Model the fold of this input.
Amino acid sequence: MIDGLDLRVQPGEWLAVMGASDVGKTTLCLLLAGLAPHLTGGRMEGRVTIAGYDTRQHPPPALASIVGLLFQEPEAQLFNPTVEAEIAWGLENLGLPSDEIARRVGEMLGLFHLEAARHRAPGELSGGEKKRLALASVLAMQPALLILDEPMGGLDPAGREEVLTALSNLRRNNSTTIVMAESDPEAVAAFADRLVVLHRGGIALEGTPRALFQQVERLSALGVAVPQMAHLAAGLNRRLGTAFDFLTLEEARLALSSSLAGYTAEATGATELFLRRERLEIAPAGAERRSAPGRPPARTEASTPVDAWPQAPEGRLESPASTPVPRSGEGAEEEVPALETRQLCFWYREGEAVLHDIDLSVPCGQFVALVGANGSGKTTLVKHFDGLLRPRQGQVRVLGRDTADRSVGELARWVGFLFQHPEQQIFGSSVRQEIAFGPRNLGLSPAEVEERVEAALARFGLLAVAGQPPAILGYGQRRRVTLASLAAMDPPILVLDEPTVGLDAQGLRETFDWLAGLHAQGRTILLVTHDMALAARYAQRVVVLHQGRILADGSPARLFQQADLLAQASLTPPPVVALARALWPADPAGECLTVEAFCARYTALFNRQAVPHHLPPGTGEAA
Amino acid sequence: MNPLFDPYLPGDSWLHRLDPRAKLWALLLAGVAGLLFRQVGVLAGLLFLTHLLLLSARVPWDRLRWLWSRLWPLLAMILLLQPLLSAGSGLGGQGITLPLLHLGPIRLTVAGLLEGASYALRVATLAFLVAALLLTTGLTALVQGLVRLGLPYPWGLTVGLALRYLPTMDSLFVTVREAQEARGWIVSQGGMLHRARAYIPVLVATIIAALRLSDRLGLALAARGLGYPARRTALHDLCFRPADWLAVALATLTFGGLMVVRYGLGFGARPW
Done:
């Protein structure tokens, strides 16, 4: 896993480690924490020293006061009955006096803004709070070296913001040496002094995040994501021969607004507002673009393009209450929706409704993104489509059939469902058996099962591990196995619950290439995601769920214009959209959902800079 | 949260404030007394007192009702089966061992019915006594109490972790089953054996996920210093106060009195 790695971290340094899935980031964390190979098995050659302590000569408990490790999954590291007890637990192991424990517990509760949760059970906290608590529990022990394994992993946008703020406080108030294995390039760009990229057990690239994130192609080949702003800089440099090196939204705004002074000078006031995510009404009359340049082919080949959706006046996003989506018999085409709910209500416990009067209709062949904060009811809603949950009130229909009298197994013929965690789906004795499970349940002939399994193995690059038990594979490969299992069932409707968690840049690209291909063939796709950039890029329609109700429903272009609505749902637009709105707040053609669209738009303006006038409305479409 | 997995009700009643060691001692004595007495009246009185104890600790009626709703199937089974299995003739008592009903080898007698009631009351009393401890004692304090009584800390921690992760395992099982169902798996078809075998994939996936979790938990415990070469301390250390001594003394005296009644006066050996 790790082979011939030489790495030295200076005291007080913040080192980020990136790399593809299963490249050994977690193994490196366990080695640096002194837990591997003592508690993990395996063989280690060479030496790891932490502040002068050789990990081979000091068992893990003895190193607990020197090195702290934040694990990716909070579930496994929060095991005490209250928040206070959780922070105190490690300190009690160190044998500290109770008044010193109380002092440090108080300090950590303050630093991570957990005072109000002091006596609550960790299990009741939100995702962001759990991460903060886990971080507080480790940091309370005042380690010389703090290791963070994917601190941003699996968080919704609000939780991500909470953890980013916590890390920012840590950076400001603490001189602890930090090693952070992280897939989120924005977090790496924000905090790391140095970045190393792992590949095949060793270091493939090393340098400052700013220097390395310029190498977009190289990083992409290594399975590493780069900040969207770095993508944008590379794209503009390629088109215009410029030398932009911005990494953050603010840097990009400054660089691009000075570069296009004539077109953006009047926008700076609004820009500040938007960047601070304050309430901002940007509602130019007739502002909606009818099409966006640079969108992937899947969008334009869709059976129900964005343009067919009703447009709300004055830039307001249409809500289902005010402007219902087309239903069979109401629109131009007589078509049975793929998925439909009518006044759906659901509760787990009487009096605590999770879903309230959900009216949703997804036409066949549409690519819909379902977004919202954790706890907004996304998973509860989509579980109704494969019968795992049944409505308490209202109706759910799949391809026109009421799910009430259909079993889950029966609905599985039409709705393929991908769960968030691969470990909750995998049980087969081999990858091949695992993938064959679904097609066999559908009652297909052995020949057809075999044909589908082989095709799925090839499609997801699993032929080499087809005979291995899937449980022993790394996370990335297990995720591929679950995708292949879904592909082998070949359902007309796919519901995917956070399929991107734990995927590296390459896995992400492959997965969405596959989904875009299926969509182009006419499959209906319902994607539950926290990733607004993916929603902006692939979805024809975005449904925002907030506290069990549909808050908004419409095209991504419309949704991302609504800063206040996004803030209400604890969502943030993709950086490139925020940048476009910041640079061209009053320009109806300024809405750019993807890096490619932005580049085209910017290039058009850049090439016309000789014209010393303000951009007239409705012009300036990409060249 | 399911009260079965997380029974503790935070509060500040006199029972909440008692040291867990005092509560454990009182529970032990009350449990032994419940096992030594068979007289239905004494056991019913003990059960009544346990309810008063819980109500004085401001345990809501809802929780008591919940516990009864979980217990009654077991109690009903005891009440139904015990009289059929035992006629109570080994306990002496003229008249009440005469059969009310005689069907082949089955003899239903008043003694048998009273013996069934005695067993059911004993089970209910013990259940409510344990509930009195768990409803008013936080997990950390309970483990701390057990450790101070001589239980090795890793054992106490194991008990705490088992209770902590029971709901996790429960929800894991449900999620795994849902994931299999979503791939077309239908469990409701076929006979009992077929259904049992159909659950194998769910069990395998649950065990794999549980092993992964326990593996990660083991690492997390070590990383946070379990086994650190220092004497373990506590944020809130236990302190045996005069009220605790008083509770211990009262429990011991009451137990002594009951033993005199039971063995000195010979009362309470039979269910009637």
Q: What stands out?
A: The longest helix of chain A spans residues 157-173.
